């Protein structure tokens, strides 16, 4: 019997169903976790232990170490965490992958979850039509869970029967019977397979099928899984290519962590596999290494090998348990050693990727937190956008300082034109930042978001629009001063005092707005109340100055043209206060927790 093209295509389709199930299950979990997942991120930078625990928790939640490490790359790219802090999270993320491994192992042989996937689908699909978002997200998770094990079952059904395809058997046997060279070959195979699939869980599932079908023995299965530890780093490496130097160093640290661990195990491979076998035997009374010995000796008809060379149910369960135990022991060992060496990793990646000379200045346009699709998880991307908006607010706040500097600078001095030009450049940067952040938010909105996530996106779109209006208003202050200077109008000392008093209130409102943007996730009531009070004070002072301006012109304290430019500045300051309050209201209505 020859393996047909249709069977091969069916096998590919089964693998695709498995991968799609993983994707849907992961996204469903992310939507259920939603805000809680973002709150976990806050623990990242506290210390080494919380960093490791955070990495474990996030990977266990979203079922993907690649997504976790890409997220870490994004945060380092943004400057949210240092390279040393990111290493602890990466260590934890790699450890968290064992959750997926044990799920696949547990439901593979002893309990055939695939027999009940239709029942799960019957429960899950109606949940998609329920009103509550959590029910919909749970339904998506169950659908992904069902597809994952349906794909795994179909892979087993369509994988070639080596006894009926002797040519393929000879091909596999040739590379599987070369001693330690075979270990290296299958280790490299694991690296390449995981780089293509970009999911170590998919590699584990394939290895599980290969071992159960008798293609390869337990030891070579462990070699493939060991290789997958390096292959899974391709995703953060690709993501870091569009990031800054810190992001590239973080991706390099991820690669080094897995590479050093894999090389260390390769050096003591047989002893390490024997240790895993002994632990497995202690747990379930069957050593998968004994099955390997029987396969190599071709001891047919035993309790662990069937007549066609495949493993019996007992042996399959033992191998599945052992294959899950292998990465568990590996991760425990690797984490126990590497957790004490984050500074060493920082030194290594800093030497491997030194900083180039001639870095760009602070006035150059660049987004810190977003860009280049560093993060593919919509719910987590919201945190990136929030941080970027806070940076946007800080940049525009500098424009207010520049505008105030112009008010007190002699128009004939060279400093005046320098500050004016810088203010114009910042306004152009502000326009570009609004566009890029807005485009990023629109892309995030197209992803799979919870209702709370969509609400936050709407709030952030409003906030960036109002921040851009603040930038425009700051430039309008400069343009008003420019017109005043061309008209050769000077303000009296009393006018300057009133202008300073007005802009002091505006500066206070700006400082309060900046503080709220820094804590957008959970805004303080006190700062929101302060924002309303500041805006009211600005309006009251504007009204007083407007009334006084008419009296002063009538009493000939200054002429009408002076009064026009004076009130233009006061009016622009009042607009600034309005825009800042609009930013605060955007944060208040879209981010403040609701107590229904």
Describe the protein.
This protein has 596 residues and is an all-alpha fold. Helix content is 77%, strand content 0%. It has 23 helices and no strands. Helix 14 crosses helix 16 (313-338). The radius of gyration is 31 Å and the shape is elongated.
What tags apply to this protein structure?
596 residues, mainly alpha
| End-to-end CA span | 66 Å
Point out poorly predicted stretches: 295-309, 358-362, 372-376
For the biggest sheet, the summary is:
none
Number of strands: 0
Number of helices: 23
Helix content range? over 70%
Task: Give the SSE string.
Answer: HHHHHHHHHHHHHHHHHHHHHHH
- Name the shape in a single word: elongated
Strand content: under 5%
- By helix and strand content, what is the structural category? mainly alpha
Q: Mean pLDDT, as a whole number? A: 77
Quaternary structure state of the chains depicted: single chain
Gyration radius, to the nearest Å? 31 Å
Map the helices and strands.
Layout (H helix, E strand, L loop, with lengths): L4 H37 L6 H15 L2 H14 L4 H14 L1 H9 L10 H11 L5 H26 L7 H11 L3 H18 L2 H13 L5 H14 L2 H7 L4 H23 L1 H16 L3 H10 L15 H26 L3 H11 L25 H30 L6 H32 L5 H36 L6 H26 L6 H30 L5 H32 L5
Helix pairs in contact: 1-2, 1-7, 1-18, 2-3, 2-4, 3-4, 3-12, 3-13, 3-18, 4-13, 4-16, 4-17, 5-10, 5-16, 6-7, 9-11, 10-11, 10-16, 11-13, 11-16, 12-13, 13-17, 14-16, 18-19, 18-20, 18-21, 19-20, 20-23, 21-22, 21-23, 22-23
């Amino acid at each position: 019997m020859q393996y047909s093209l249709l069977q091969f295509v069916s096998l590919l389709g089964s693998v695709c169903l498995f991968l799609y199930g993983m994707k849907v299950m992961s996204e469903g979990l992310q939507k259920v976790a939603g805000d809680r997942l973002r709150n976990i991120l806050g623990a990242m930078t506290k210390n080494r232990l919380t960093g490791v625990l955070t990495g474990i928790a996030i990977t266990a939640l979203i079922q993907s170490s690649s997504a976790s490490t890409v997220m870490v790359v994004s945060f380092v790219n943004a400057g949210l965490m240092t390279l040393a802090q990111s290493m602890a999270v990466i260590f934890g993320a790699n450890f968290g992958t064992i959750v997926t491994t044990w799920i696949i192992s547990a439901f593979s042989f002893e309990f055939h979850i695939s027999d009940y996937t239709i029942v799960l689908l019957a429960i899950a699909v109606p949940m998609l039509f329920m009103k509550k978002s959590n029910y919909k997200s749970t339904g998506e998770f169950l659908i992904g869970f069902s597809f994952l094990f349906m794909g795994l079952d179909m892979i087993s059904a369509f994988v070639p029967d080596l006894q009926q395809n002797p040519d393929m058997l000879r091909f596999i046997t040739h590379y599987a019977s070369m001693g330690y060279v075979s270990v290296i070959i299958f280790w490299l195979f694991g690296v390449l397979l995981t780089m293509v699939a970009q999911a170590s869980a998919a590699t584990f599932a394939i290895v599980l099928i290969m071992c159960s079908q008798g293609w390869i023995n337990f030891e070579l299965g462990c070699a493939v899984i060991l290789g997958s530890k390096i292959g899974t780093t391709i995703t953060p490496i690709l993501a870091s290519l569009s990031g800054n130097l810190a992001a590239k160093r973080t991706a390099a640290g991820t690669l080094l962590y897995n590479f050093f661990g894999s090389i260390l195990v390769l050096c003591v491979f047989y002893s390490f596999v024997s240790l895993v076998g002994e632990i497995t035997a202690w747990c379930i009374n069957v050593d998968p290494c004994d099955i390997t010995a029987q396969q190599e000796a071709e001891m047919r008809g035993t309790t662990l090998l069937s007549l066609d060379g495949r493993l019996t149910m007992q042996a399959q369960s033992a191998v599945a348990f052992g294959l899950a135990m292998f990465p568990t022991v590996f991760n425990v060992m690797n984490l126990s050693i590497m957790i004490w060496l984050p500074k060493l990793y920082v030194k290594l990646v800093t030497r491997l990727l030194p900083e180039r000379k001639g870095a760009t200045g602070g006035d150059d346009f660049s987004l810190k937190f977003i860009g280049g699709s560093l993060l593919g998880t919509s719910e987590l991307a919201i945190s990136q956008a929030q941080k970027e908006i806070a940076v946007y607010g800080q940049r525009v706040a500098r424009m207010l300082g520049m505008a105030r500097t112009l008010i007190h600078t002699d128009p004939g001095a060279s400093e005046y034109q320098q500050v004016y030009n810088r203010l114009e450049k910042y306004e152009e940067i502000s326009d570009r930042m609004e566009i890029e952040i807005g485009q990023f938010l629109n892309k995030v909105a197209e992803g799979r978001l919870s209702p709370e996530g969509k609400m936050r996106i709407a709030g952030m779109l409003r906030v960036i629009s109002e921040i851009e209006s603040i930038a425009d208003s700051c430039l309008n202050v400069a343009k008003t001063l420019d017109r005043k200077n061309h008209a050769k109008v000077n303000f009296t000392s009393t006018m300057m005092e009133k202008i300073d008093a007005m802009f002091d209130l505006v500066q206070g409102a700006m400082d309060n707005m900046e503080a709220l943007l820094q804590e957008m996730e959970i805004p303080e009531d006190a700062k929101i109340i302060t924002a309303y009070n500041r805006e009211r004070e600005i309006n009251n002072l504007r009204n007083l100055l407007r009334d006084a301006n008419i009296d002063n012109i009538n009493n000939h304290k200054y002429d009408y043209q002076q009064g026009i430019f004076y009130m233009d500045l006061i009016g622009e300051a009042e607009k600034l206060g309005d825009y800042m309050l609009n930013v605060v209201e955007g944060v208040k209505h879209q981010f403040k927790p609701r107590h229904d």
